[in-house]
TrEMBL record:
A cellular component annotation (GO) from this entry: centriole
Keyword hit for Coiled coil: yes
Principal subcellular localization: cytoplasm
Subcellular location(s) per record: Cytoplasm
Gene Ontology terms: biological process: cell projection organization; centriole replication; de novo centriole assembly involved in multi-ciliated epithelial cell differentiation
Domain CEP63/Deup1 CEP152 binding coiled coil: 625-659
Name of the protein described by the UniProt record: Deuterosome assembly protein 1
Domain CEP63/Deup1 N-terminal: 25-286
InterPro entries: CEP63/Deup1_CC (IPR057656), CEP63/Deup1_N (IPR031470)
Keywords recorded for this protein, A-Z: Cilium biogenesis/degradation, Coiled coil, Cytoplasm
Length: 668
């Protein structure tokens, strides 16, 4: 197509050359200068294209280096993700080991509690057999039993604390598992993004290479077209010489026409000035005519007034002298009859003068109209001459425009070729922009690892606030439990007054109880050491729990079963706060404590005969009724707590899902 276009252009240029060779060729020097300027422009464009190609090659090399750097950074990030996975797996294994240790300790504690229960049953049997001993022995035994009850309650509290701690560890393990899943999903997403970006980068490299090849082909084609253009330019030089000569002739003719136009415009201005002067003269003449007409009207009015005055004078004179007037009038009439033809002649002369003045004014009006018509016709003739000159100028301009259009068509062909090269440059710039965009995406990927855990800080802060509220509620519960403890001590004192006669039959069992207490003390040494270790570990785990998964605060209503759970003793600062699952274990331990207290009361009041006095029976029935009601309330409260805890778990899951989505959206 380009060859066809060049052949067509050469044929057109030959026809133009044949057409213009007929004309005079006088401006060859100007054409040579133009051709020299065209050669300079072509050479400058060649140099610019070569510079641009070198710059594009340098940019492609820099892009290749950047792509290699991006690949290396992606590989480093994948290695970091693998390291993080290994760390998570090691953390999970360590947590599993800790849970197994705590489970072993709990099993050992359960075994010790079973032993304590068996010994307690043996003590009950001994108390039933030897209930006929002295009051002093019974009081000592009761003190030991109370100490034993306190110890058993402490053991059960430790059990509940261990259960709570295990529940918190389970919750932490679940939360860590969820976090691990989230990290795995994020790492998979990151890997997918990295793979897609690698694929995109490979495609960009391939497209850039294809663009380079295409640009090189375009450069070769452009060089060929430049050579063909040089041949065309050589042909155009001959045509341009003739065109410039004809253009100079046309310019001279245009200058002459412009001079004639300026002269015509000056003549028009002079004629307009003469017209304005003639109009002024006509207006002055019209004013004079108006003045003459006004004077004529004034003269006619004066004549009428004169006649009226004469008639009046005559009438007056006739009235003054009626007698004498008649004679005089007759004489005067005779005289006036003689003068009447003279007056008629005077009037006729005046009318003739007026007619002459009117004719003179009419002639002056006709002359002014004729002169005005002549002044109007002169500019019309001049305008016709100017129109003829404009027509000749328009024909010359049309010929010049045809030549300009032919030259513009040739220039448009060259501009199209330049536009193609500019399109290739624009493609290179688009590739550069895409590479910059990929760099920004890689920087965002680096920022995601640092900002990945930020969405989890807000729920941690809310859980910390809920922990503080739970601690306040625990303090209020301690006060309520102290009041209940006082009430229970009063009821126990009343029961001890009724059983005062039963304290004399227990002297023989004192030594046995002392021996058993020594055994219990030896057995308690190991659990106390384990308790210290547990407290040390729970402080660390509670710190971790406060940062990670903290139990949400439940409703502020506290049932009586919760108030009985602590028995008036202050909670240690080392022990972590209660979780939702820990509350359920704590309530179960409360039921076991209540059952143990019932057994102790039965053992105290079971002497030789199985039926206690009526006052004792009433007190036991009231306490049993109170405890049953509290058990019912505790069960109802457990159900409410379970539903509330489920709702809180759902809400926490929703909040975590929201924050994870927000974090993923930010990363995307």
């Amino acid at each position: 197509l380009e060859k066809k276009a060049t052949n067509g252009m050469t044929q057109q240029m030959e026809t133009f050359g044949q057409f213009f060779r007929l004309r005079n060729s006088s401006c060859e020097a100007e054409l040579q200068e133009l051709m020299h300027q065209i050669d300079i422009m072509v050479h400058s464009k060649k140099t610019e294209w070569e510079r641009k190609m070198k710059a594009l090659e340098a940019k492609l090399e820099s892009q290749d280096q950047e792509m290699e750097k991006a690949r290396r950074s992606a590989e480093q990030k994948s290695e970091e993700v693998g390291v993080l996975r290994k760390k998570l797996e090691s953390a999970e294994t360590s947590q599993q080991m800790i849970v197994q240790k705590y489970e072993g300790q709990l099993n050992s504690l359960k075994y010790q509690l079973g032993k304590l229960k068996n010994t307690y049953e043996k003590l009950q049997l001994h108390t039933t057999k030897h209930s006929k001993f002295n009051h002093a022995e019974n009081s000592a035994d009761l003190q030991k039993l109370e100490e034993f009850n306190v110890k058993s309650k402490e053991w059960e509290k430790q059990k509940s604390l261990y259960q709570k701690h295990i529940a918190s560890l389970d919750a932490q393990r679940k939360s860590l598992a969820e976090k691990c899943e989230l990290f795995q999903k994020q790492s998979q997403a990151y890997q997918a993004q990295l793979n897609s970006r690698k694929h995109f980068l490979d495609e960009a490299i391939i497209s850039s290479q294809s663009d380079n090849r295409r640009l090189r082909c375009q450069l070769d084609n452009s060089q060929e077209t430049i050579k063909s253009d040089e041949m065309i330019i050589e042909n155009l030089k001959f045509a341009m010489s003739e065109v410039t000569s004809s253009r100079n002739m046309l310019q001279k003719e245009n200058q002459q026409l412009l001079q004639e136009l300026t002269r015509g415009q000056e003549q028009c201005q002079k004629l307009q000035e003469e017209l304005s002067k003639a109009k002024i003269a006509l207006q002055s003449r019209e004013d004079l005519l108006r003045v003459v007409e006004l004077e004529h009207i004034e003269l006619e009015n004066e004549v009428a007034k004169y006649r009226a005055s004469r008639t009046r004078q005559e009438s007056v004179k006739s009235f003054e002298s009626s007698s004498t007037s008649c004679i005089r009038l007759n004489d005067e009439l005779a005289k006036k009859t003689q003068e009447l033809p003279k007056v008629g002649l005077d009037q006729e002369n005046q009318q003739k003068d007026l007619n002459k003045a009117r004719i003179h004014l009419y002639q002056q009006d006709n002359l002014a109209g004729y002169q005005s018509e002549r002044t109007k016709l002169e500019p019309s003739d001049l305008m016709e001459k100017l129109r003829q000159k404009d027509i000749t100028i328009a024909t010359i301009i049309k010929d010049a425009r045809l030549l300009e259009r032919q030259l513009k068509a040739e220039l448009e062909m060259k501009e199209k070729q330049l536009s193609k090269q500019q399109i290739s440059i624009m493609n290179q710039e688009a590739l550069n922009k895409e590479n910059k965009h990929l760099k920004e995406l890689m920087e965002n990927l680096e920022g995601t690892l640092t900002t990945g855990l930020k969405p989890f800080q807000e729920p941690r802060e809310s859980y910390a606030v809920s922990m503080s509220t739970l601690q306040d509620k625990n303090e209020t519960l301690q006060g309520d439990l102290e009041s209940l403890r006082c009430k229970l001590e009063r009821s126990l004192d009343a029961a001890q007054k009724h059983s005062g006669t039963q304290w004399d039959a227990h002297q023989e069992t004192i030594q046995r109880h002392t021996n058993e207490d020594r055994l219990f003390e030896h057995e308690e040494e190991w659990p106390m050491d384990s308790l210290m270790d547990l407290r040390y570990h729970t402080t660390k785990d509670s710190a971790l729990g406060s940062e990670g998964n903290v139990s949400p605060s439940h409703s502020g209503m506290a049932s009586p079963s919760e108030r009985l759970s602590i028995c008036g003793e202050p909670i240690m600062d080392d022990i972590p706060s209660f979780t939702a699952d820990g509350d359920q274990h704590h309530q179960r331990s409360l039921h076991s404590e209540i059952d143990m207290s019932n057994i102790l009361m039965d053992s105290l009041y079971s002497k030789g005969d199985s039926s206690p006095p009526p006052s004792q029976h009433m007190s036991f029935s009231a306490t049993e009724h109170f405890l049953r009601e509290e058990e019912k309330r505790a069960k109802e409260f457990e159900k409410l707590l379970g539903s509330h805890i489920d709702e809180l778990h759902k809400n926490s899951g929703r909040t975590l899902a929201k924050y994870t989505r927000i974090g993923q959206n930010r990363h995307m």
